[in-house]
Amino acid sequence: MICAKAAGLFDCYDANMSLYQEFADRTAKLIADGVLRPGERLPSVRQACKVNAISPVTVTKAYHLLESRGLIEARPKSGYFVRARLGHKLPEPEMTHPVGGSTALQVSDFIFQILDSARDPSIVPLGSSFPDSRLFPLERLGRFLAAAARRLDPLATVTDLPPGNEELRRQLALRYLAHGASVSPHEVIVTSGAMEGLSLCLQALTKPGDLIAIESPTFYAGLQASERLGLKVIEIPSHPREGVSISALADALRHHSIKACLFMLNFANPTGSRVSDENKRALVELLHKHQVPLIEDDVYGELYFGCDTPVSSKAVDEDGLVLHVSSFSKCLAPGYRVGWVAAGRFAKEVQRQKYSTSLATAVPMQIALAAYLKHGGFDNHLRKLRRQLMTQEARIIAGVEEHFPVGTRLARPDGGYFLWLELPSQVDTLRLYEEALVSGISIAPGPIFSAKREFSNYLRLNFGHPATERQGDALATLGRLIKRQL
C-alpha cells in the first residue's frame, strides 16, 4: 500500500508546507520513482487516514491536488488510480547531431523578427520566453520596493555600486549555502538581469574571434550575446532529457581551442533537459582538466518539480572555474531586471566589465529584493509556483497528446516551463509560426535555437501560463495546422 511504502519519505517536508501538500508531494515522489505504477489503486481515504494519522480532509485535498497535476484520476465507485504518465504516449527526441565545426554567427535579425510577435497581448503566448506575471507576488514585492524607495540612504547610490548591495549579496550567498555550495558574497556581482550577466562573463573571458562551446539546441539569447561580441561557437550535442553530452564535449576540447563553455545544466531552454548531479561533477572535472571556464545560465534552477533540489555546479567547483549566472526574473520578479553572477576566480574581471558597461543595477530594486529574501517568504512562494507549473505542464501535455499528429516526439521536463517537441520531418516550423500567428498564436520555431538554423521541424511551447479554454483551442488549432503540412 502507498502509505506503508511512503514511510520515511519526509526528506522534502517543511514546517511551512500544508500537511496535505506534504502528503501529496510524498505520493508524487512514489509515482515518479516508479514505486506506484500506472493503473495501481491508491489507498482509500479511510486507509490513508489510518496509516498516516491524518484527517479525511487532508487526504481528500492531497488527492485533489495530485489529480490537478495529472498524476492520478478518480474512477466512479472505485477510488483513485495512478494515471499513465502524461507524455509517455509520445517518444522523446533523440540526441542532437549538430553539423560541422565552428560557426561565425549571424542570427540576431532572424531572432528579433520571430520575437516581435510575443509582445502582442492578444496573441496566445505559447512562444513566449516568460511565465505569466500573475504567478508572482508582485503586490507584496511592491510593498518592499516602496519601503526601499522611502528609506533610501543617499549613500547607497555609491555604496551599492558594483559588486552591488551588500545585504542582497549576503542573502544570495546564504541560498548557495542551502544548495550545498560555499560562495563568498565577495564573488557575487549584481547585474541587470541574467542577460547582462552572461554578456559580462563572455567579455571577461574572451576577445573577438575566440571560440566558445554551446549546447545544441541552445537559448537564442546566448547566440545573440556571442554574435554581438564577435565570437565563434561550436555546438555540442545534447540529449532532451540528460542535457549536454560530456563525451562530445571532451572530444571538442581535445581538437579545438575553446575559451569558455556556455551551458544550461538545469531545465535548459528550449529542451527542459537537466544534467544529472553525477554528470555535473564529471563536467566540472573535465573543464578543470583543460582549465576552461564554465558559464552556467541557471535562471530555471529554482523551478524543479518534486523534492530533489538539483546539485549546484558551484558545489562541485573546487578552483573557481564556474561562473554561475542567475536572476529573479523567472522565479520571483519579472520586470525588476535584477540578476547576478557568482564569478569564482573571475570576480574582479566581471566586476570591471560591469563598471565599464552599465555601471550599476537599480539600487531600490536590490534593497527590496534583499528584504524580501530575508522576510518575504521566498521559499513558500517557490513551492506554490512549482506546484502551479506542474499542473500547467500536465494540461498542456494532455493537449499535445490529444491534438498533435502521429510522429510527434516530446521531451518531458521535470522543471522549468518549456516543452520541446519534434514534429514529423515534413513539417516546417517557420512556416507553422507564420500560419499560427495569423490565427492569433505564437510559437517558438526550432531554428531560432541553432547557430546554423537547424531543428526546422522542432518547436518550443511555453506552459508558464495558466491553462485556459483559449489555450486549449490554440493547441487544437496548432494540431490542425501541423497536419496540413503532412
UniProtKB/TrEMBL annotation:
Residue ranges of the TM segments: none
GO molecular function: DNA binding; DNA-binding transcription factor activity; pyridoxal phosphate binding; transaminase activity
SUPFAM superfamilies: PLP-dependent transferases, Winged helix' DNA-binding domain
Entry keyword Transcription regulation: yes
Domain of life: Bacteria
UniProtKB keywords: Aminotransferase, DNA-binding, Pyridoxal phosphate, Transcription, Transcription regulation, Transferase
Pfam families: Aminotran_1_2, GntR
Keyword Transmembrane helix belongs to the record: no
Domain HTH gntR-type, first and last residues per copy: 17-85
Signal sequence region: none
Similarity comment: In the C-terminal section; belongs to the class-I pyridoxal-phosphate-dependent aminotransferase family.
PANTHER family named among the record's database cross-references: HTH-TYPE TRANSCRIPTIONAL REGULATORY PROTEIN GABR (PTHR46577), TRANSCRIPTIONAL REGULATORY PROTEIN (PTHR46577:SF2)
Name assigned to this protein: DNA-binding transcriptional regulator, MocR family
The organism of origin for this protein: Thauera aromatica K172
